[in-house]
Amino acid sequence: MKRMIRRRLCMVILTAMLLTLFLNYFVQIQSARSGMYEEALDNFKQIERILEQNEQDTARARQELKQDCFIRAKAAAYILQSRPEVIPDQMEMKKIAGLLQVDELHLFDTQGNLYAGSEPKYYGYNFNSGEQMRFFLPMLADRSLELCQDITPNTAENKLMQYAAVWRPDGQGIVQIGLEPTRVLEAMKKNELSYIFSLVTVENGSVIFAVDPDNFQILGATQEALVGKELEDVGLGPEQVLSSRKGVRAELDGVDSYCVFAPSGSVILGMARSSSALYRGVNRSTALVALYLVLVALLMIVSISNYIDRYIVDGISAINRKLTEITVGNLETTVEEDSTPEFSELSGRINLMVRSIRDNTNKLSQILDVAQVPIGVYEYNQRMRRVMVTSRVAGILGLAGDEAKQLFADHALFEEHLEAIRQNPLSGEKGVYVLSGEPERFVRLETYFREYSVLGLIVDVTEDIRERRRIEQERDIDLLTGLYNRRAFYRRMEELFGSPNELGACAMLMADADNLKQVNDRYGHQNGDRYLQGVARIFRSVCSEKSVLARLSGDEFAAFLYGCSNREELEALVERLRNVMNVETAELTGGESIPVRFSAGCAFYPEDGEDYGSLLKCADTAMYKVKRTRKNKELEE
Q1: pTM of the model
Q2: In this predicted model, what pLDDT tens digit does every residue of 477-522 receive, in sequence order?
Q3: Which domains does the chain have, with CATH numbers?
Q4: Which of 605, 613, 612, 538 is nearest to 577 (CA)?
Q5: Which UniProt keywords apply (predicted)?
Q6: N or C: more exposed end of the chain, with fewer CB within 10 A?
Q7: Nearest to 364 by CA among 462, 461, 456
């Protein structure tokens, strides 16, 4: 029986494997062609973008050259009007042309006759000497005209030139300059297809080309050997080029290829790739799939044969193995052997016994609920998947229903979740961790290991932490300004200077609020408090996270800046502090506002002191020096 089942199983698997291979090969062929089609369109867009960019560059170069011609023509007119004595001197005219960096400089009289300039060979020409010269005839009738000719072959030598002409300011003649448009011609060359295709890179075995839609001649290609050939000479017919399909198969220059075409402006762009290059990955992938299918088929045959042996022949052995797992603590084990009525009854009684054991966890949950203690307990055996938990565990960890079920069903996932919580410990608290989400919550985790099982305790300590923080807040924070008080400031200094190697570049600032007594006397102590809050606001707006800000006494403030890379960075922060002070105001009751000002002294570590006490003393001395200087200045004024 087992042999017959194996034989039929092999036939079914072999048939499925062949169908899968055929379908996979067909899909990959289509995918390769579709991929080439998308690649071809991308390359065509690249060529179009290059053409568009080159046309823009050419137009810009033409416009810039015209503007340049006008500027140089006007400069020449100004020079010749200022120095009329150089007009008869052809060498001087040559020098002027060189200084203006023009190739030709011509001077016409009011009748349009060329009588002077840098090129004597053109003397005697006038605006009627040829089509190129007649362009400037309108200037004789309208002296307000300034004309710049497009790039045109000149009358005498048929050489490409760009000419611009303007009237002399005194109206005694027309000045014309000529430039060889080298930069424009270079830009125009970039629009040639030979140049465009030199910029395009293609895979080995591929070629991109442009076809004239009128005579189907190849105008440009990434393979120079194809340029100038007719399509029929390389194995392509016009009907294939004009096809609206995504691609066609053809013999391109004797090589079996797949081709894609698309119209682009006045040409048709095409891309061809040899079949060997296009389908190279398909054959290799198909061979790998065949290998995988053979391995999977063998694995399936072995697995199914083992399944038959296990549940038909080895029923009793299966129950014994299940019982062994239960005895070592794997309470997730369920016995479902029902090949005979006796096995079915035995399996049910075993499962009932295991459920009774698991109910002990529910009893513990009820006890903790009655006691109203925010404690959760969990336990699992390393050989079982399910985690036994009390009812409060999900609530303490903030787990939703489906998420809790998923985690409690697999102890590996549950431990991963606990490990993620352990990655966010609460500083200064051993075994206490911060839970993600809002509002902020804290838990204490305790784990106990036995031979095969793990017992854990999860305690919600959120209220304890919050109460402790409230006490610390009242102890360390100045209620008026929200800054550290004196005691907290000195404690933080002890902590930071306990590891001086980690301080980096540091600075200590001492500040004293200016004119606080006058503010209190004039506006009242309530507005004096607002004045002090303005000083604290200035410090907070400028200083970074790596700073310690404190109100040491009534009008005395301190700021310790650390973790900077150099002194220049510190000095920049101090300067920002002064700049912010210059614009800060305190809003008083009644809608009036007054400027907030303070005197500050600064000491740098380690230049001015290697401990915070020395820095405070040095900064305090500097502060009083600034304060005295300011008072003396006010007295002088």
Answers
A1: 0.37
A2: 888 998 999 999 999 999 899 888 878 899 999 999 988 999 999 9
A3: 358-465 (3.30.450), 477-636 (3.30.70.270)
A4: 538
A5: Coiled coil, Membrane, Transmembrane, Transmembrane helix
A6: C
A7: 456
